[in-house]
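Quick one: examine this chain and its backbone structure tokens and tell me how the chain folds. Here goes:
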Amino acid sequence: MRVLRFVRFENFAGLFYERILPFMIKQRKRVLLFVAISLLVFAGILSVNRFDADDDFVKVKEEEDSVTDLADIIERGYLRAITDYNSTNYFIYRGEPMGFHLELLKHFAEHLGVDLEVSVSNDLQQNIDRLLDEEGGDLIAQNLTVTNSRRHLFEFTVPHSRTRQVLVQRKPEKWFSMQSSAVDKHLIRDQLDLGGKTIHVQRGSTFVTRLAHLMEEIGDTIYIVERDEEMEDLIEEVAQGTIDYTVGDENLARLHEMYYSNIDVRTPVSFEQNLSWAVRPGATELLEAVNEWLGDFRETRDYAAIYNKYYNNPRSVFIAKSELHSLGGGKISVFDDYFKRYAEIIGWDWRLIASLSYQESRFNPSAVSWAGAFGVMQLMPGTAEFLNVGTDASVAEHIYAGVRYLQWLDERLENEITDEHERIHFVLASYNVGIGHVLDARRLAEKYGRDPNVWKNNVDYYVLNKSNPKYYQDPVVRHGYARGSEPYHYVAEIMQRYRHYKNALAMN
């Protein structure tokens, strides 16, 4: 915050007239007298302008204290959330964006009546910087340990869960044939025994701070190695014997203990701690909204189901090792190679083609809709005949045909909608409902003063309302009634999933 300081000259003027001026007249120091009078005149000018300057200071302070808050989010229409990327908080599995914090965020955004926009980084400092910069996000949705030092940076919400930090260590060889008491003799159970040990932890995490405090408490040295890897990667290194010790949150460590039977996570290194989200200082309305919603939601069955799904489910870690998990194998589907190959035809990101295919069929080659659409790209019989592809064609041929159809739609629209990114929305809607209905919506937009070349809050409104007689019976409409809610949500869901795919999976 800028601070402006102003010198008060009233006291100086009184002093000048009462003491300095008589002295100078007596001494007849003309030069000094001239200088002093000049200073007095200058002081008077500043004193006159002082109140204007103070007014300017108030304006500057008000501008700098103004931050994006709940009303701005509602008006904008979407919540910008920042989270991290791991096997519990946020990931993609079989094409579906998933994660503990992602599901909570979806519920909160629905509660606010806004859309959700998620950005992802595993660099906590970068996430904090983005939050404070305002342009990067409205809140951080992670497992943020509540500490006094962090309270100076941002506002913590009420806790979404609790955990404690535990030591992750490897059991002795042939532990499975030993009694538990014998196994314990090979493990650290007393924190005093950590003296002289080397512990690898995630860089910049609260684990580093906790171990530093623990050194003071036990009066001995703990060798802390800060690593760029995630907590779960370090747990895997312990299991594999690459390192001896790491520290993790107990809820996540216990989950990995179900997968790596040779690790032990029963030695605590901290007391139980609150885990919260964070909002920008000054965003008081948003903070109150999160606290009110989260305080109630934690008591629901929905919250319990979400928590158990990610932290008390033995399958979670097995899923994370799947090739169809964005962390384990880095794939969206088994057909990724086809999406990558044929995306070049239209010049789209292959992840966008994959998002469309997931929307259509969940990557099921045997899928058949009530209307007769078939295959992973759900081609209608008439479209399939136009593209010369049948139900007995291979998955590769179906994807190739679907992309060629997208290209055909794109070519029909490119002269009117020159912005390539904007045109994608129109092509997707046309793939779903037919290009005729989309052209009708463009004509309606133009008639009612909206931009026919912009999808969001322009043409999408008239697509959505194509089931309203006021619009489908309008003279500019040539293709009549359409159930507009389907293409409206179709485009929104594909684009949102595509953003998740970009967050979690590399382009190549």
Summary: The first strand starts at residue 78 and ends at 83.
